[in-house]
Amino acid sequence: MFREDNERDYACIAYFTAAELAAALITFDSASGGAYSSHIEGTRKELVLCLGNGAKMALGFKQYKRALCLATAAVEAAQSLPTHNSPDAVDENITAKNRRRVESSGWAFSFLIFIPEYG
After folding, report:
1. Which residues of 3-21 are buried (b: 16+ CB within 10 A; e: fewer)?
2. pLDDT for 75 beyond 50
3. Structure confidence by residue, pLDDT tens digits, 88-105
4. Which long-range contacts (CB under 8 A, 24 or more apart) does 73-77 make?
5. Are 70 and 54 in contact (CB under 8 A)?
6. Which of 42, 63, 97, 98 has a beta carbon 3.0–4.6 Å from 74's, enabling a disulfide?
7. Is the pLDDT of residue 27 over 90?
8. What is the pTM of this model?
9. Cβ 47 vs Cβ 41: under 8 Å
């Protein structure tokens, strides 16, 4: 997937940062009473995608707690979004993929908390 480790590191940071930016834009729009809704169309979808991709990257780095948090946030964010006919629509396959990431990271994290060096 990535040719070099530093590319993988960069991709991981890029997904986290993009998710933070999307969340900030959404929060700003909410705080302004939706005054900028037309300007941030698609941002909610991008938030879900970035959180999910960040979770995938965290799983690759064996950062199971981070992966669990990101994947759970992606699933929760997608719940209120449409599944089609909208710039913010999130395909059901994406949500299913993020649910699998929740399960995978949750299982791995629960296993690791019983190992003293990880607890």
Report:
1. eeeeeeeebbeebbebbee
2. yes
3. 999 999 999 999 999 988
4. 74/48, 74/49, 74/98, 74/101, 75/99, 75/102, 77/44, 77/47, 77/48, 77/51
5. yes
6. 98
7. yes
8. 0.85
9. no
- Report how far residue 39's alpha carbon sits from residue 106's, in angstroms, rounded to the nearest whole number: 36
For the chain, first and last CA: distance in Å? 30
Q: Tokens standing for 41?
A: 């169309």
37's tokens: 């809704």
Higher-confidence residue of 118 and 109: namely 109
- Max Cα separation, the chain? 50
Fill in the DSSP letter of residue 117: T
> Phi/psi at 8 (nearest 5 deg)?
-65, -40
